[in-house]
Amino acid sequence: MPDLPQRKAGIVSCSGEELAEGTVARLAALKVLHELRPGNTVTICLPLFLAGGEGDRAFARFHPTITVDGCELRCAAHGTETYSGKPAASIVVKELAAVQGIGPIEGRRSLNDAGKRAVDVTAQRLSELVDQFVGKRDARGVAADLVVLQPTGAKVATCSCGSGVPAKTVLIDGKPVEGKE
Amino acid sequence: MTCRVAVIPCSGIGKALGSVSREVAYEVCENLRPDRTQLVALSKLVLGEQQARERVQNNAAVTIDGCKQMCAAKLVRHSGGTAVREIAVFEVFRRYKDLKPEGIAELNDAGKQLARALAGEIAAEIDEIAEGGTHA
Predict the structure, then answer these.
(1) Residues on chain B touching A31 (C-beta within 8 angstroms)
(2) Does the pLDDT value for residue A159 go beyond 60?
């Protein structure tokens, strides 16, 4: 079987410096990226859609992307859709916390207990969405319901359409062939 | 109208230096110069939110970026503002080589010390800006 790159979900968080819910969004995204689904997720800084290059703006066209916002302004969701591509799903911390009866969330620099619970709940919801879009893996990162595919020699190349989709080198019958994911 | 210096950190999610920029902004705006500053969320500038744009257009702005992409500085310019100071944490770190920041969700002690040191420098500059009447 050719050695193809694995599909990963993109997570884009608002920076939300002004609100405690923004801190929840950021920490929940980091928890999923580093602890809960490290093998299945990637991220990008939201402002890179404007400050970066075409390759950065291709992010949501390349990865099924889940946005997580602190408040109803939904900066990450709107920003991603405007500059990159329509998110596959969106979460708003304020709404999720209200549904779960969590609050008041306080402490944008250091979250209170409600804020920490909101981080856990938001991270759990994010993980469920990641599983929905790219499959589920066990704690060792081994796929439970999809074939394990590992990237080889990934590099960024820009297609003539300007999509900036990363190109990968795969081995087919022992010969390296460059293609797209 | 009271002018407050707009402080815009990058809050980069992929590097500890982004967490330092966020911590610096909180230290300046919450502890050191709460009466002379206002924190502006970078996400709002990505969205083009009117109030955030007016804050950076009508006030002196200080941007704090973690990496060489300088997203906060670029977004302020994109929003019609002019940063009177564009701070790059990775350059400041060269002056504090013993304070290596690690950890994104939770900064290590060295990262927090680096943030406090930089916050002190920025607070002094904010005093100069405020007292000198420098506007973007």
Answers:
(1) 105
(2) no
* b/e A158-173 (16+ beta carbons within 10 angstroms → b): eeeeebbbbbbebeee
Q: Do the Cβ atoms of B41 and A75 come within 8 Å?
A: yes
A87 at interface of B, judged by CB pairs closer than 8 A = no
Question: Is the bond into A104 cis (omega within 30 degrees of 0)?
Answer: yes
Pick the residue from chain A with its C-alpha nearest to B25.
A17
Q: Is the pTM of this model over 0.80?
A: yes
Residue type, B64: I
**ipTM score of the complex?**
0.92
Closest CA to A133 of A58, A41, A45: A41
Average pLDDT for chain A: 82
Gap between the Cα atoms of A68 and B39, Å rounded: 21
Query: How far, in Å, CA of A80 to CA of A63, rounded?
Result: 12
